[in-house]
Amino acid sequence: VTNAAKLRMAALSASLAVFATACGGGGSSHQNTIAASSSNVETITVNAGPAGGYPNGVFTSVRVCVPSTSNCQVIDGILVDTGSYGLRLLSSTGGGALTVPLPDQTGSDGNPIGECAPFVSGLTWGPVANADITISGEKASNLPVQVVDGSFASLPKQCAAFGVPEQETLSGQNGLGANGILGVGPLVQDCGSQCTQTGSSNPDLYYDCAGTTCTVYAESLAAQVQNPVAAFATDNNGVIVELPQTSTTSSVTGSLVFGIGTQSNNALANATVFPINSKVEFNTSFKGQSYPAFVDSGSNALFFLDSNTTSLPECSDNSSFYCPGSNTSLSATTAATGSASETVKFTIGNADSLFSDPSAFVFPTLGGPNSGTFDWGLPFFFGRDVYTAIDGKSTPGGQGPYWAF
Amino acid sequence: MQARVQSSQHSGYTLHEMQSATGTTVREYVSPAGMVFAVAWKGPYAPNLQQLLGSQFEQYEQAIRTSSGRASHGPVTIRLANLVVQLSGHMGDYSGRAYIPDKVPTGMSLESIR
C-alpha cells in the first residue's frame, strides 16, 4: 500500500485506517505495482489454460533447450506454482507440448532415473531429464527437470500408494490442465537430504529404471529436480508474483519478477516479511484461533478450515469448494515468529454460481474447505505483490525462506 | 508402517499415535470394538495413502479418477456415502485425514480428528 493510498483511506474514515495495510484479495480497493517488461520480468496470465476450463490457474512460458545446443522450444501454458520446487514438463505424447529430446538423467549404473513427485491431489510420474532453461532474460543451464510421461516405465508400487497420476484424472482428459508446472516456491530441491539416503527413511520419490521396472534410488541433492530460480546466475534469491486486483472475468495479466532487492524493479518496499518454519508454514488466526498456514499460487482457491468453523456450506456437487448463499466477507490475521501480524480481508462467493459463467476463469472469491489449515491460494494474490524468498538466500528482508506481502 | 506406537484412552475411542520412518506422524482412532474409524497424518513427505486408507483406497482412487467439472487444484475433499477423505498441504508439508462418518462416536467433534 502506498502512503497516498493510506492517506486516502484515512480521509474516508478513521476507522478504516487499521485496515490500510490489509488490502487485496477480493473486495478491497487499492492498486499494487505490476512490473513493466524487463530482463527479470516474465508475463503471467490467469486464464483457462492450454487444456481449457482451468479455474484460477496462473500460466507463463518457458524456453527449453537440449543442454548446450540450439535445439530449443518455447512452451507456454506452464502453471506458476509457489507451492512446489522445480520445472515439470508434460510430454507431447502425454497430452502436453514438450517435443525437444531432452537427455535422460542416468544413475550410477547407467539406467535412466525416474521421479514420482507427489502433489496434494495427485502425483506426476516420468523421467528426470536435463535442460537449459530461459525465462525472460534469466537462464539456468543443465538443470534437472521432470518430464511427465506415463509411458516412461511402469508406475512403481510405492508411487501408486501416493495416489493417482495427475494426467489420469478428470475423466481421461489431461488432468494436469497445463503443459507443465514451474515450481518457484521457497525451497531449492523438490525432496532434499532424505532422498539422498538409502533404506526406509527414503521417501520414495526417485527411481532407477531398468527397462520398465523401477526401484527406489538415492538421488544426490545436485541431481534432484530443483527450483530454476535458485540456479539463475542473477536475481536468484526469490520471486515476486504480481497480479492486479480483479473481479470475476475471463483473463488477467501480471508479472513474475525474479530476484528480491536485486534490481530497481524488485525492492521489498513496505511488504511485511513472514519467516517460514521447518514445516514450510507460518500461522493464520481466524475467530481467535491460530492455525498452520501457507501461501501457494498453485492452489486455485482460498482453501481454509471447514463448514462448522466458517459457517460456509460446501457445494452439494463438489465438496472441495464452498457455496455460501451470498458473498460472505471474512478476515484472518497472518503471523510468524519474529514478524509483524497483518489482517487480511477476503470475500467468499458461491462456487456453483461463479462456475455457471462458462467464459469466466478468474475467480477472486473462490474458496473451499481445508480442515485445520489455511492455504492462501491464488485469490490471495489478486491486488497484492507476493514475495517468496528461497531457503538460504540473502535478501534485504533477511535470509530466506520467507513469504512477504 | 515402522513405528513406535503411543496409545491413549479417550471417551469412546483409543488413539494410537506413531511416526513413520520418513517422519510422518500418523494418528489412528480406534473404536472399543477394535475398528479404525478415522486416521489423520502430517509430515514432510507424501504419506502412503494405500496403507492409511487400507480397503478404502480403491474407492478413493475411483472418486479421484472420475471427478468432473471445474477441478480444485490444491486441497481436496472427497465425500462419499461411507468415507470422507481430506488431503492438504504442499510439497514439503503434507497433511490430511480420513474417516467413516457413521462410525465416529457420538459427541466426538470432527475437528479433533487431525
What are the SSEs and their pairings?
The complex is a heterodimer of chains A (405) and B (114).
Chain A: H1 3-12, E1 41-47, E2 57-65, E3 72-81, E4 85-90, E5 113-118, E6 123-135, E7 138-148, H2 157-160, E8 180-184, E9 206-210, E10 213-216, H3 228-231, E11 238-243, E12 252-258, E13 273-275, E14 282-286, E15 289-295, E16 302-305, H4 307-310, E17 328-335, E18 342-348, H5 351-355, E19 367-368, E20 370-376, E21 384-389, E22 402-404
Parallel strand pairs in A: 3-8, 4-7, 15-20, 16-19
Antiparallel strand pairs in A: 1-2, 1-12, 2-3, 2-6, 4-8, 5-6, 5-9, 6-7, 9-10, 11-12, 11-21, 13-22, 14-15, 14-17, 16-20, 17-18, 21-22
Chain B: E1 6-10, E2 13-19, E3 25-30, E4 36-43, H1 49-53, H2 57-65, E5 76-80, E6 83-90, E7 93-99
Describe the structure.
In chain A, the strands form two sheets. A seven-stranded mixed sheet of chain A has the order 18-17-14-15-20-16-19. In chain A, strands 2-3-8-4-7-6 form a six-stranded mixed beta barrel. Helix content of chain A is 7%, strand content 35%. By secondary structure, chain A is mainly beta. In chain A, a hairpin with a 2-residue loop joins strand 6 (123-135) and strand 7 (138-148). The radius of gyration of chain A is 21 Å and the shape is globular. Helix content of chain B is 12%, strand content 40%. Chain B has helices at residues 49-53, 57-65, and strands at 6-10, 13-19, 25-30, 36-43, 76-80, 83-90, 93-99. Chain B is built from two helices and seven strands. In chain B, strands 1-2-3-4-7-6-5 form a seven-stranded antiparallel sheet, covered by helices on one side. The two termini of chain B are 18 Å apart. The longest helix of chain B has 9 residues, at 57-65. Chain B is mostly beta strands and 114 residues long. Chains A and B meet through strand 20 of A and helix 1, helix 2, strand 5, strand 6 and strand 7 of B.
